[in-house]
Structures are given as C-alpha cells and as structure tokens.
Write a structure and sequence with these properties.
- By secondary structure, the protein is α/β, with parallel strands linked by helices.
- The protein contains eight helices and eight strands.
- Strands 1-5-4-6-2-8 form a six-stranded mixed beta sheet.
- The longest helix has 17 residues.
- It starts with a strand and ends with a helix.
- The relative contact order is 0.14.
- Bound molecules: zinc ion (2 copies).
- The site of one zinc ion has 5 residues, from loops.
Length: about 270
C-alpha cells in the first residue's frame, strides 16, 4: 500500500479530538462530486495539495460543522492512500450520526466532471484502504456507497457500479501489506526498467519514478523511462554503492535497484 500520513500531506490538526468507534459494519465509498481536472491524471504532485484543499473546505463548512476532513481515507487516481481521520475514528461523511457510526468513509478522488472514471490504481488504493480498516479498524464486511441509505449521487455511477460488483481488486492478486511508514518496497514487478526506443508508457516506471521523486531526485513522474530516468538511475546506483549498497551501475532498474529505492534509508 502506498500510504501518505497526515504529516506527509500537511494536514491541519482536527479542531476537536475525533470520536472513537470500536467497530463498524463496514465501509462506504464516496467521491469528490465536483470537477477533478484531467491534468491530475499525469501529475501525482498535485494530489497532496488537493487533499489539503478538501480538508480546508470541510473545516470551513459552517453547515456541517466538521472538525476535520470528513473521510477516514482519501485515495488518489495514482493509488495513494491519504490518511484522513484514520482508524477507529467516526467519519463525518455519511450524512448523519447513525450513518457515520455504522460505516467508515473512504473517498475516491474523482468527480462528476473532468476525471469521472476510476482508474485501476484508484480502485487498488480503495481496496487497500478498505482492507486496512478491516484488519486494524474493526470494519465489518459491508462495502456500500454513500447513496445507500442517503439521498445523494455520491459516489457517482462508475464508482457505484464497482461497489455493486463487490468492489473487486483490479487484476485480482494479493493484499498489499503495511499501513504505517510506507517505505516497505512493493514487490519488484519482474520487468527490467530501462531506456528503450520507442519509449513506452509504463505503470511500473511511474511507481519507481514517484519513489525516486519522493526521495528528492529531480525527476518527472510520467511513466516514460527516458534519458532523465536513466541518468537518475545511474546516479542512484553510484551513490548507493558509495554507501555500501552494492548495485551494478548500468542505468537499469532490476530487482536490487528497485528494492534499494525503498529500503535504503534516505540520507
Ligand atoms: Zn459522499
Ligand atoms: Zn496522486
């Protein structure tokens, strides 16, 4: 799971302590319900700022009187799980207090214009958040939409269709583990990331680029393994070797270079 803690996205503290919930019947799925600009699709760098904006809007809503962002987690189209109220805290998003005590709330960061279709990455992140709430937050087996039991369009027809289909994890596969630090390496995809012509857009390249950008390397996160990615890879391999992580300096992301990107402490 790609987890972004409140500290990492720059959350404001809640206005009051959150109300504790020991367990819920399950989770309700939401969406933003406004325009989500399509430019976000290719720029995860925008996502933390968008989460900060959602929190600010919620805390400024005098009708609702929210003490914090209303959701337990918010999931961006790049599969990152942003921590909202988190585990064992009552959501404010489901419509009224009985509904808020009955289910947690997770928000898929798509809208009713611009980005309206969930990406596979978004659905993967939603599954990760739901499983985290089940494993550590006492969430029961139900997965519903905001519109179940409350008059709203939320979470929009495409996401609601996924909920009604049983909220399947894209491509099947196993549960991503780890809920805390976000530094455990995702499994090496089994694909060597290298400069090739023509350049091919690749989700694994994007994952590695994002990790390297998070480590502070000057890199455009665009899924294309071009000259910039190759140069960063070679410099990282040289730098790692100088720090005792012996990597072949070849500008190719194989299993050891992939794992080092997550496991080597950022120095
Ligand atoms: Zn909603
Ligand atoms: Zn994102």
């Amino acid at each position: 799971m790609k987890f972004v803690s409140r500290a990492e996205w720059g959350a404001q503290p809640p206005r009051q302590p959150w109300a504790y919930v020991a367990a819920t019947q399950g989770v309700k799925v939401h969406y933003e319900g406004t325009e989500v600009p399509t430019g976000v699709l290719n720029d995860h760098g925008l996502c933390a700022g968008r989460v900060r904006d959602i929190q600010a809007a919620h805390m400024a809503d005098t009708t609702q009187g929210w003490i914090d962002v209303a959701y337990n987690y918010l999931i961006c189209v790049h599969s990152y799980v942003f921590e909202g109220r988190g585990l064992h805290h009552e959501t404010g998003a489901n419509g009224n207090q009985p509904l808020n005590l009955a289910h947690y709330a997770v928000c898929g960061m798509i809208g009713n214009s611009g980005i309206t279709q969930p990406t596979d990455d978004l659905l993967t992140g939603l599954r990760d958040a739901i499983e985290l709430l089940r494993q550590e937050g006492g969430a029961g087996p139900e997965i519903k939409g905001h519109r179940d039991g409350y008059a709203t369009d939320c979470p929009g027809d495409p996401l609601y269709a996924w909920v009604q289909a049983g909220a399947p994890r894209p491509g099947g596969g196993s549960v991503a583990s780890g809920g805390g630090g976000g530094t455990s390496a995702p499994p090496w995809p089994g694909e060597y990331l290298r400069l090739q012509q023509p350049l091919l857009h690749d989700g694994n390249v994007r994952t590695w680029q994002q990790r390297m950008a998070d480590r502070g390397w000057p890199l455009t996160v665009d899924g294309w393994y071009g000259a910039q990615s190759k140069a960063v890879c070679e410099q990282f391999q040289q730098d790692s070797t100088a720090h005792g992580w012996l990597l072949t300096v070849d500008g190719v992301v194989g299993e050891q270079t992939w794992n080092a990107a997550w496991q080597r402490p950022v120095s």
